[in-house]
Write a structure and sequence with these properties.
alpha+beta, four-stranded antiparallel sheet, 3 helices, 4 strands, about 35% strand
Amino acid sequence: MIIFAYSYYIDKGKEEEYLKWSAETGAPFWLKQPGVVEMRSYSARGSNKRTVIVEMESFEAWGKLWDKPDLVEISNKFAEYTHGLKWTLLQEAARYSP
């Protein structure tokens, strides 16, 4: 498993429009991609910053995603609502449980 994590800020005045687009278009796009196991979005109370965690089966699945032509369209629309995007790709180093 790998984690694709990205953080960004929603532009002021575009929160409602972004949340609608994200629920109807953005998240469904990610969830239908081969190799995506789960997607979670987090926010700090009172902040327009979001962090999204996408769990994927492999680096190969992540790489194939970037070959999809509709990713450009999704990315361009995402950029209309957001700024300050930063991302990282992580692999599991250890697992602990109670």
